[in-house]
Design goal:
Blueprint: E1 5-11, E2 16-17, E3 22-29, E4 32-40, E5 46-47, E6 59-65, H1 67-72, E7 83-89, E8 96-97, E9 100-103, E10 106-109
Parallel strand pairs: 1-8, 1-9
Antiparallel strand pairs: 1-2, 1-5, 3-4, 3-6, 6-7, 9-10
Organism: Litoribacillus peritrichatus
Catalytic activity: 5-hydroxyisourate + H2O = 5-hydroxy-2-oxo-4-ureido-2,5-dihydro-1H-imidazole-5-carboxylate + H(+)
Family: Belongs to the transthyretin family. 5-hydroxyisourate hydrolase subfamily.
């Protein structure tokens, strides 16, 4: 079974995938955020193997992208040192894809497929 939560990071300044960005996934449990997975984006800018085989659960999740170290490797200063999005899972049977479009001075996300 594929991971119920995936991400894809595209560097809009480079016009391609953001390879090598650290990303952490949290779940809100009893009011506290608990880290449940972490990884680094692959050559295609993706993390697709979080939570493989784990049961999907309703709840509030947070995804945190370590943008500062990524841009520092390019010799750039990033306006957003960390990008964090909270999202809700209501239908655990569905796939949740949380992409990030990023440049040193802009960010965007949406619920992907």
């Amino acid at each position: 079974m594929a991971s119920p939560i995936t991400t894809h990071v595209l560097d809009t300044n480079l016009g391609g995938p953001a390879q090598g960005m650290a990303v952490t996934l949290y779940k809100q449990i009893d009011g506290a955020l608990v880290e449940i997975a972490s990884g680094v984006t692959n050559v295609d800018g993706r993390i697709v193997d979080w939570l493989d085989g784990q049961q999907r659960e309703k709840g509030i999740y947070r995804i945190e992208f370590a943008t500062d170290p990524y841009f520092e490797k390019q010799g750039k200063t990033c306006f957003y040192p960390v990008v964090t999005f909270d999202f809700r899972i209501e239908k655990p049977e569905e796939h949740y894809h949380v992409p990030l479009l990023v440049s040193a001075y802009g960010i965007s996300t949406y619920r992907g497929s």
